[in-house]
User: Which sequence fits this backbone?
C-alpha cells in the first residue's frame, strides 16, 4: 500500500464519497495526496485533487501510477499536477493513463 498525505479519515471518506475520474479526463488536477488500498480484496487507488475532492479509481494502470506518484512527493514537493487521459485498446476497451505535467 502506498500513501501520501491521506489520513484514515480521508481514506474512509474516499471509500464512501469519491468522485469519478471520468468526469475530469484531460483536465489538469493538482494532487495533494494519494493512496492505494484494497476493498474486498480488490485494489483501489485514491487521488486528492486540490479544490475538487477525492477520486477513487479501479483501473490497474492508474493504480500503478498512483503507487509511483506517492513516491514522487517529498519535503520539497507538496503538490504534483497531473492529467488523466482515456485511450481505447485495439479490442475496443477503454483504459486510462496518467501524465505528470
Assistant:
Amino acid at each position: 500500500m502506498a500513501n501520501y498525505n491521506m489520513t484514515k479519515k480521508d481514506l474512509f471518506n474516499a471509500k464512501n464519497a469519491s468522485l469519478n475520474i471520468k468526469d475530469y479526463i484531460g483536465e489538469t488536477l493538482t494532487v495533494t495526496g494519494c493512496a492505494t488500498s484494497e476493498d474486498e480484496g480488490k485494489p483501489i487507488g485514491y487521488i486528492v485533487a486540490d479544490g475538487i475532492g477525492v477520486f477513487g479509481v479501479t483501473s490497474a494502470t492508474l493504480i500503478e501510477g498512483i503507487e509511483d506518484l506517492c513516491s514522487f512527493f517529498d519535503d520539497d514537493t507538496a503538490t504534483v499536477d497531473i492529467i488523466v487521459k482515456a485511450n481505447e485498446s485495439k479490442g475496443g476497451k477503454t483504459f486510462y493513463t496518467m501524465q505528470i505535467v
Observations:
- The first strand starts at residue 3 and ends at 4.
